[in-house]
Design goal:
The complex is a heterodimer of chains A (about 150) and B (about 260).
Chain A lengths: L2 H11 L1 E4 L2 H5 L5 E4 L14 H9 L6 H4 L20 H4 L2 H10 L33 H12 L4
Antiparallel strand pairs in A: 1-2
Helix pairs in contact in A: 3-7, 6-7
Chain B lengths: L2 H15 L18 H8 L6 H13 L9 H5 L14 E3 L4 E3 L1 H13 L9 H12 L15 H12 L9 H5 L6 E2 L2 E2 L10 E3 L4 E3 L1 H11 L10 H13 L10 E2 L1
Parallel strand pairs in B: 5-7
Antiparallel strand pairs in B: 1-2, 3-4, 5-6
Helix pairs in contact in B: 1-7, 3-6, 5-6, 7-10
The chains are: A mainly alpha (about 150), B mainly alpha (about 260).
């Protein structure tokens, strides 16, 4: 089934199953998007919020603070072109956060938020990053676990 | 086509390819986003590190080179005669059947007229001479030529500006049209007007070309950069100059 077909089917059923074929073929874990969220952990386990905080803080790994500002005071010079991370755990459910990290373009095709868990439909990806998601499933679960703690 | 009709054709095209182009009254050089100390460095020739390249460029202008043993001055006379030239490049080259940028124009002069080898991109010599030529246009408004042959390349450049690229799936426009003025980490996102090239970047500790700057952005997007001299860069340079038309040239600029 092609991607537009999947999206069309998703609009009708409000459930989109990504895989096993497309995601597995990319070496990615299969996930199920329900509306604007992915309710089940990509790894089947809860993430580690402390590790997630480290991923968010690292400008070479999570890249988050290039665009977002978050409650990580030891990191100076945080970005201002995306929403504050503070309060993200109140604004969004765990599943909504997961989908927004995995592939936010599925909610808003014009978003500037990079697709952290997608390797297809991209153009001129640098050789060293081809077929690699920005973060692994484990790292995404760690970040989701951290963001859900940001209630204020 | 008459010049006026050609101008209208180019302007009409610019209007159709420009998506949310920044209105003329709101255009802003990256100069205004810098601290006063870096601005002062650019403004004072004695403090502007680009002056070192200008001095070498001045010497190269008069040096006879290549099998033809000709200098730039032998054909062009005083460099001041080239005032305004950098403000209208990239321009269409009949030899190349496509637009070429100022660096490519200089290298064509070397190979065709001086019978010398082309200089490598980002070589000290090419940066020096292009800076020296660009300096002759300082304070003059960017004035892309009203040449209908440029239209398809301008459209290709505009298309590239809006194209998402790389692992991060970003387009030039998402930052420089839609989010200029906001912070990307420590940096204020500029509107990306190429007013100061070749430019001295403190980060580079060197003068560098617009193509080098475009490569930096592509690498940041985790996109495969094009090779120096690639037509994609020149199309993009053409679009950026069109998008900045009317803004004064500052070359050689200084940026953080």
């Amino acid at each position: 089934m092609s991607r537009p077909d999947l999206v069309a089917a998703g609009l009708v059923a409000s459930i989109v199953v990504w895989g096993p074929s497309p995601l597995a073929a990319q070496g990615l874990r299969t996930y199920v998007a329900n509306g604007d969220s992915i309710s089940v952990s990509l790894t089947g386990r809860p993430g580690d919020p402390e590790k997630g905080r480290a991923v968010v803080a690292n400008r070479q790994v999570g890249l988050c603070l290039l665009c977002h500002t978050g409650p990580i005071p030891e990191e100076r010079f945080q970005g201002s072109l995306a929403p504050e991370l503070s309060g993200a755990g109140s604004r969004w459910s765990e599943g909504q956060l997961r989908l927004r990290i995995v592939d936010a373009a599925r909610i808003n095709p014009a978003t500037i938020m990079p697709p952290y868990y997608r390797t297809q439909g991209l153009t001129r990806v640098a050789r060293s990053f081809v077929d690699k998601p920005i973060l692994s499933a484990e790292q995404i679960e760690d970040v989701v676990a951290y963001l859900t703690t940001l209630k204020d | 086509m008459k010049p006026r009709a050609a101008l209208l054709a180019v302007l009409a095209l610019a209007a159709t390819v420009a998506r949310a182009e920044i209105p003329e009254a709101e255009r802003r050089s990256g100069y205004h986003d810098m601290g006063p100390s870096v601005q002062a460095m650019q403004d004072d020739d004695a403090a502007n590190p680009g002056t070192l390249w200008l001095l070498q460029g001045e010497a190269l202008w008069d040096r006879r080179q290549g099998a033809a043993a000709k200098s730039c001055a032998d054909c062009h006379g005083a460099a001041s005669g080239l005032a305004g030239v950098a403000a209208r490049y990239p321009a269409f080259s009949g030899v190349s059947s496509r637009p070429i940028d100022l660096e490519q124009r200089i290298n064509l002069c070397r190979t065709d007229n001086q019978k010398a080898d082309a200089w490598a991109y980002e070589s000290r010599e090419l940066l020096s001479l292009s800076a020296y030529v660009a300096r002759q246009s300082r304070d003059l408004p960017i004035a892309p030529p009203a040449d209908p042959r440029l239209a398809p390349f301008l459209a290709a450049g505009a298309d590239l500006f809006a194209r998402r690229q790389g692992q991060l799936n970003l387009s030039c426009a998402q930052c420089h049209d839609d989010n200029h003025g906001k912070k990307l980490a420590a940096a204020t996102i500029p509107q990306a007007h190429p007013t100061g090239y070749p430019i001295y970047r403190l980060e580079w500790q060197s003068l560098g070309s617009l193509q080098r700057r475009l490569r930096n952005c592509l690498i940041g997007m985790r996109a495969e950069p094009y090779a120096y001299g690639a037509p994609e860069y020149v199309d993009l340079e053409l679009y950026l100059m069109s998008r900045a038309r009317g803004m004064p040239l500052e070359a050689p600029g200084v940026r953080p």
